[in-house]
Specification:
The chain is an alpha/beta fold. The protein is built from 14 helices and eleven strands.
């Protein structure tokens, strides 16, 4: 038994599964919790909290629950004596992350324990952990390589490689090989009409004047169009207007087996139904390029802004942060409600305010120290 002194030792538990499918079934997560509790009971350890990480890889350094647990475990109040996981692969599948994690915990006086694995608390035990970690990392690298190899093969055969289906299409199974379904993209007419409408607005607008992404999003939202039940925003309008699928083909695989980006000439292109003519697509791309920030004078795009990060919309039921926008001529800059910017004027009635009018007023009132303090 590990805990031998009068005060019962305490531990944080950590459970993880690597895919969203496993997370949805919850079986592995639930079993890990049971096993951690049984292990702690046998060792005389009080398991005070279990951190659950569904659907994230053990090689990911940015796991929210993992990082929250580490922050608490290494705190000055020394809340726990141990961090317990089912095995090392649940905690981390990256040798550098293992070394970093173990170092942080050791400096805080916290020891790592594993319900399914036993390591000596010695130099040789640490070497054993690193060897195990390297094997786990090697396994995930090989699995990733196999996945990319499979995606490339799928693309080379002309099938949909998976992922989010672009607006205007739906994926349908066209062949079954063993337990695997092979799919291709087909036109979803209801959505395709929306895609064509977006390109038409971007090219000709409502009165012959091309519309920008924000104006298009506002128009669509006001007239009852939805993006599979969701609202349109400037960002997803931009994505639609630049998506190569609508020209009748798309890159099914851009990366080699090790995850390195391939030269464009080596991409595997997959055919799909064409929704937009190349003439229209290229014309819209040219119109958008003329409005790109890089084509506006640098002093306008990058000039100092006093209130960014401080000013918020004052309209009732809003309170969104203020962003900076330029007028059509690019001559003036304005503070603009971010809610209005992303969802259109119907979402908020806050007027635009010129930066060269508001900034001096704020300075005159002596409010400029606020920004320094905020930093």
């Amino acid at each position: 038994m590990i805990a031998e002194n009068s005060r019962k030792k305490r531990a944080f538990g950590y459970v993880r599964v690597s895919t969203s499918e496993q997370a949805e079934h919850k079986t592995s997560l639930r079993q890990q919790k049971v096993d951690l509790q049984n292990y702690c009971d046998r060792q005389g350890i009080e398991l005070i909290e279990v951190f659950v990480e569904p659907g994230l890889s053990g090689s990911d350094w940015k796991r929210p629950e993992f990082n929250r647990m580490m922050l608490l475990a290494t705190g000055d109040d020394h809340p726990v004596d141990f961090v317990v996981a089912a095995d090392m692969a649940r905690l981390a599948r990256d040798v550098e992350l293992i070394i970093t994690t173990q170092g942080r915990l050791k400096r805080a006086g916290v020891q790592c324990l594993f319900a399914y694995q036993a390591f000596e608390d010695s130099h040789f035990g640490m070497l054993h952990q690193l060897l195990t970690g390297w094997q786990d990392q090697d396994a995930i690298v090989k699995a990733s390589m196999n996945t990319r190899r499979g995606l490339r093969g799928t693309a080379q055969e002309g099938f949909w490689p998976g992922g989010t289906v672009p607006l205007g299409y739906e994926s349908r199974t066209v062949e079954i090989r063993g337990k695997k379904e092979k799919k291709k993209l087909f036109v979803n007419e209801a959505e395709a009409r929306i895609v064509r409408k977006i390109f038409d607005l971007a090219e000709r607008g409502l009165d012959g004047t091309p519309m920008g992404g924000r104006a298009i999003a506002e128009y669509l939202n006001q007239h009852g169009y939805t993006r599979r039940g969701g609202k349109f925003h400037n960002s997803n309008i931009a994505g639609i207007l630049s998506r190569p699928h609508y020209l009748g083909e798309f890159p099914g695989n851009k990366f080699d087996e090790r995850g390195n980006l391939l030269p464009e000439e080596d991409w595997t292109m997959v055919e799909c139904p064409q929704l937009i003519s190349k003439e229209t697509f290229d014309h819209v791309a040219a119109l958008r390029a003329t409005r790109a920030p890089r084509n506006i004078a640098p002093r306008i795009v990058t000039g100092p802004t006093l209130l960014i990060g401080i000013a918020h919309c004052g309209m009732p039921n809003c309170g969104a942060g203020m962003t900076v926008a330029t007028g059509g001529s690019g001559r003036y800059r304005y503070y603009k409600c971010n809610e209005r910017t992303n969802r259109g004027a119907s979402s908020c009635r806050c007027p635009n305010v010129r930066t060269d009018k508001l900034d001096p007023l704020v300075m005159e009132e002596g409010i400029h120290p606020v920004r320094t303090a905020a930093r």
